[in-house]
Design brief:
The protein is built from 4 helices and 5 strands. The protein has about 150 residues and is α+β, with helices and mostly antiparallel strands. It has a domain of about 100 residues: 60s Ribosomal Protein L30, Chain: A, CATH 3.30.1330. Strands 1-2-5-3-4 form a 5-stranded mixed β-sheet. Strand 1 and strand 2 form a beta hairpin.
Length: about 150
């Protein structure tokens, strides 16, 4: 099933297109690879979720923030390419979790994003290589930031 059909079948709603917060491109394509700049959990009301994991967010709340971040990335892909069916697969994800020093479950947090990509692009194409790192702060106090590399179909 196509990614576009998966959105409809699963009732997945994408947030509006992300607004840039600096001097950079949201998507840069070279060859058949597209590199997406870091995204945060952009919401329907065009604001970011904010707060630290281990303080304002528990594991489940942080997984929801990671899922929302993945939705923002998918929205950027759809906005940039016109159709998600142009995406061949997720290649690599770099994820940062804004968390307290004693929080150690960054990979479990980022499962929220990986699961969303699997829902949209399928188990094989939606799951790529990834890194999940903790940090003491992120821009605007967002709980999660994710960069993404995807392969584009010719």
């Amino acid at each position: 099933m196509s990614a576009e059909a998966n959105l409809i079948e699963k009732g997945i709603q994408l947030p509006p297109a992300v607004k840039k917060g600096g001097v950079y491109k949201l998507v840069v394509q070279t060859g058949n690879l597209a590199y997406l700049s870091g995204h945060g959990p952009w919401q329907d009301d065009e604001t970011f979720m904010t707060g630290r994991v281990g303080e304002e967010y528990d594991l489940e709340g942080a997984q929801n923030a990671a899922r929302q971040t993945a939705l923002a990335l998918v929205s950027t892909l759809k906005n940039h390419y016109g159709s998600l069916d142009r995406i061949s697969r997720v290649v690599k994800m770099l994820a940062l979790v804004n968390c307290t020093d004693d929080f150690k479950e960054q990979p479990q947090v980022i499962n929220g994003a990986s699961n969303l990509f699997a829902e949209v692009f399928g188990e094989e194409a939606g799951i790529g290589a990834r890194s999940a790192l903790g940090t003491n702060t992120l821009p605007g106090n967002i709980p999660v930031e994710i960069e993404l590399i995807v392969e584009i179909k010719d």
